[in-house]
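Researcher: Sequence recovery benchmark, item below. Answer with residues only.
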């Protein structure tokens, strides 16, 4: 189970938490009404841990109503505002590689860009090499998202992009070259980060070691997107003062859990004391054995007759060994009996 509240995406240790079991349906309904991205996630869970206040706010009807109202106002506002002419997007069937950006699909207007402030101008480029198409197709194949499919559809049947005078925004091209995780921006990335850290926490807590290198922990999650700074910050958030992070220039960063050292040492001491205590007890018994043996052998028993049942307790102290009397008196004085 995640160590982070899915609602606020903050560690559960930050405030009071509650485990939701029977109330999962309420959370799912709240997610559906809000129109957020948690619906599918919640449907796959039997229970979740969240902050008490986050849950109250998430399922509160007035809060949900406010979210819905804000969304409706935003949609209404978007439908009323007409986009500027420079950003008019043509349908794919009538797409023109010369007049529209290959990547974003917006119309290219150099005159419009010249009128804008210099820092807001978008540089318009023209395809000048025959290898451009091949490189774009390779990137599109690695992305495998909707944007990549659209770009492939635009150039798929155009053999010579140079002859077609294909143009594009330079910033759109740079953005297209960047790797994508194929999901939404924001929380999905955070969720992937949380899952990666969960693997690291599990690895640490199931390990017999108490010292790890930062590279070792990075290899556990096998996530190249998670950086050293994030791992160290999350370790501090999760373990607090129990973790020590040692960094030395030119050497591996070491992560050490203090409690593991302390628990191991205490366990070792406890076992040693227990072992010493047992040895001491056996030594005492070994020393006392000859004395008790002599007392037992010194007792004279008459086997010619047996004491009648009515007189069995007469002179009972006379039949108790001296060593036994001493033992009983000592234990009584010490308060153990």
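Model:
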């Amino acid at each position: 189970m995640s160590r982070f509240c899915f609602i606020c995406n903050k560690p559960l240790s930050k405030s009071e938490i509650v485990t939701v079991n029977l109330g999962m349906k309420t959370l799912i309904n709240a997610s559906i009404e809000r129109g957020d991205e948690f619906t599918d996630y919640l449907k796959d869970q039997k229970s979740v841990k969240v902050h008490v206040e986050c849950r109250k706010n998430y399922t509160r009807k007035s809060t949900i109503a406010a979210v819905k109202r804000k969304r409706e106002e935003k949609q209404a506002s978007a439908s009323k505002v007409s986009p500027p002419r420079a950003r008019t997007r043509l349908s794919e069937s009538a797409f023109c590689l010369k007049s529209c950006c290959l990547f974003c699909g917006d119309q290219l207007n150099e005159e419009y860009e010249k009128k804008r402030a210099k820092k807001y101008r978008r540089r318009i480029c023209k395809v000048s090499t025959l290898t451009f198409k091949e490189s774009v197709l390779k990137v599109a194949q690695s992305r495998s998202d909707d944007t990549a499919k659209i770009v492939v559809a635009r150039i798929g049947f155009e053999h010579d992009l140079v002859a077609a005078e294909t143009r594009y925004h330079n910033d759109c091209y740079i953005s297209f070259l960047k790797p994508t995780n194929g999901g939404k921006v924001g929380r999905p990335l955070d969720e992937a980060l949380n899952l990666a850290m969960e693997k690291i926490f599990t690895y640490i807590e199931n390990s017999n070691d108490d010292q790890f290198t930062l590279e070792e922990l990075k290899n556990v999650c096998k996530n190249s997107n998670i950086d050293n700074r994030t791992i160290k910050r999350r370790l501090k958030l999760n373990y607090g003062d129990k973790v020590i992070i040692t960094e030395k220039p030119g050497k591996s960063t070491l992560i050490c859990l203090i409690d593991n050292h302390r628990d191991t040492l205490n366990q070792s001491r406890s076992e040693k004391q227990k072992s010493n205590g047992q040895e001491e007890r056996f030594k005492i018994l070994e020393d006392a054995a000859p004395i008790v043996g002599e007392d037992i052998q010194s007792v004279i028993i008459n086997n010619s007759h047996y004491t009648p049942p009515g007189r069995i307790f007469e002179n009972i102290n006379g039949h108790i060994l001296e060593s036994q009397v001493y033992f009983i008196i000592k234990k009584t004085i010490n308060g153990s009996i």
